[in-house]
Amino acid sequence: MKILIVGNGGREHALLWKLRRDAPAAEFFITLGNGGTAPLARSVPIPPTDAPALASWAAGEGIDLTVVGPEAPLAAGIVDQFASHGLAAFGPTRAAAAIEASKAYAKELMRRAGVPTAGFERFTDFEAAERYILSRGGPMVVKASGLAAGKGAVVCDDEREAVDAARAMLVGNAFGAAGREVIVEERMEGEELSVFALCDGERALLMLPSQDHKRIGVGDTGPNTGGMGAYAPVSIADDALLRRVHDEIFLPTLAALRTDGHPFRGLLYAGLMLTADGPKVVEFNARFGDPETQVVLPLLASSLLDPLLEIAQGGTLAGAALDWRPAHALATVLAAGGYPGAYRSGDPVEIPAWIEEDDDVIVFHAGTRSEGGRLLTAGGRVLAVTAVAPTLAAAAARSREAADAIQFEGKYFRNDIGARELARRAGAA
Length: 429
What we know:
alpha+beta, five-stranded parallel sheet, 14 helices, globular
């Protein structure tokens, strides 16, 4: 069997890591790759966004399954392109991926479907947005409607901050085309939760819930990033809550997409806020999240390949189930100096041998490259250091020990990933 992974970041490294365990005899390929994927898969010198070239290459190579990691290729229609060549690709079509590519579309779909989410208005004109913000007042969130690499949401404490955020997007072109339309929505209060669901267009098979840490600073301070760490499972996401998420969020959303003529087959990721009124959708993503994937997949005891192949080949998830390890996982992201702004690149990375030899510590590479036998930094988020242990406290301690031991110039990481959960568990004990 031949499997292609599209993408070259930490999420793709995690997908490759898990799928190799599911199919050790398979031959693996990855677009461009990074310093961590090099020993695991053959690098394909075609960018993830060049769908026509990738589809032609995959057809010629006889690829049996393609798994698309990043949002940009999905939004550009890579799955449609592969389908035109008769190739099985895991991920939604371009039309279905609009649930992530256009926050305006996603919000309108949720409103029509009765899916709980924050109240909102959408704008393409700054003056109109400013009038609305000033009339509304109070805390709110301003979001670029398009794809902005996880950094397009600005959480504002008051109308002044919200006006500044809208001006930066609509006038200052802060997020380019992604910010030509903005969403201004109420600011919800509560804990955030990430829930992945494997979807066959009608059914949703929920995966283990996790919690991401978006802010750059300790204590959830500073600007949003692509994610500074994550952990799983989350104790407040009990069976009753997940049934509610399945029934009130995923199923109506899938039904609405079918009604629009865009059945969603792939991985639908609901970013939720657990409010006093119940779970509400912050955003949908049309693919696995990063760094949540790096803590969810190490806990998956059953096959990931089987449901991905079933969905990609047009099959059904009826009767499918997932088995999970009775353990905890926590990932600490190591970022380059300056991230999420301008960051350093090209610095040597040193990973001690004891980390590489520890089966319960997995270093997923995101922004690295190999050059002349050396591992170098090549991105804002460089590594995700995941530890698996019987308790979250043990996983946190091991992840931070390894994060501290890995060396590169300008290294930065948060030492409080999972702090809220650890405090909750300590209180319960």
